[in-house]
Structure formats: C-alpha cells, structure tokens
Design a protein that fits this description.
By secondary structure, the protein is an alpha+beta fold. It has helices at about 10-15, 25-30, 35-50, 55-65, 70-75, 120-130, 145-155; strands at about 80-90, 95-105, 110-115, 135, 170, 175. The N and C termini lie far apart (about 40 Å).
Length: about 180
Amino acid sequence: MFRFEAFDENDFLEFLWQGLLDDFIEEVLKRFELYSPKVQFELILYIRERLKESLYPEIFAKALEIKEDDAEHIMKGDGKIFEILIAERDNKGKVTGKICKALAIPQTSKIITNLSHLKSKLSVLKKLLGYNFAVFFESAFSGGSFMLPLAVALSVKKIPEDLRFTGKLNSKGEVLKVDFIKEK
C-alpha cells in the first residue's frame, strides 16, 4: 500500500480534491496522525463535502480515535469555518502575521482537535461555553489567541466576513493580553 504521508503535501491535496484517493480513503485515514495539520484539516473538509454519505462513520471514528456518534456528527453536523490570526517567526527572527483557517463543530461528546497541545486551552473554552466541541486547524501554532475567535465561531451564527478577532480568554470570558497584535 502507498505511504500517503510521504507524498508531497500539495500533490496529496490535489489528488484528494480530484477524488483520486476516494478508493483508498480507509488507508488514507489510518495514517491521519502522520499528516500535517493542513492535510488533516483538508481531509476533514473533503469528507464533510464529498464523502459524508458514503464513508462509514466507524472507519472515520477509528482513524480519529473517537466515538462513532462523534465521527458522524463531525461528518454531517453543523460546523463553521473561521479564521484566526497567528504570529510566525521567520528564520531571521522577524515576526509576521498569518491567517489560519479552522473548522469548529459544536456539541461533541468530548473535546476533539488535531492539535492536542491546545487541549488545556480548549478545556477553558468548554467551561466558558458549557459544552464540548471539535475544532480542526490548518496550521500548527502555540499560544492562546485562537480562543476568542473560536468562542465567537461557536457562539455567533453569522460573523461578518471582514471581521477578525484575536485574544486569549479565561473561564469567566475575560479577554486576556496576547502578543504581536500589530503583526497580526
């Protein structure tokens, strides 16, 4: 079988969106943890858009190590794509802002994410919102400035397209200081 994780990321995504990996989707999903956040994010979007009626939830659940009900909810339930502003440092140490897309899906049985190092911050949001959710990010990052845009995405039905948020939150909903505001 193919080592899909060894494919060039752009080639893999091209093959995916052309439907060329549909016959291998179970094998592709078995390697979910080996892919970059961007590939993981795109896989989730692809499944929601193109395979939600044909892919068995148990295959998806096994790949993500989640309950079947959560897998089906991620595949077919309400979700919202939103953007967060993150700061990146180049090889010379210069900090620049970058937009990172994410997909938020409310009302799962537990917090589910493709960036496990953010779980403690996601738990703060769970306490604030009062429910579990899934969130998949297209880029890896650290910090907590994603918390406000995620809370807004999960709480507000329609967000104006030209509006962006950044900010770390505590469990009371207070916006805390974040770094690199100007760069973002």
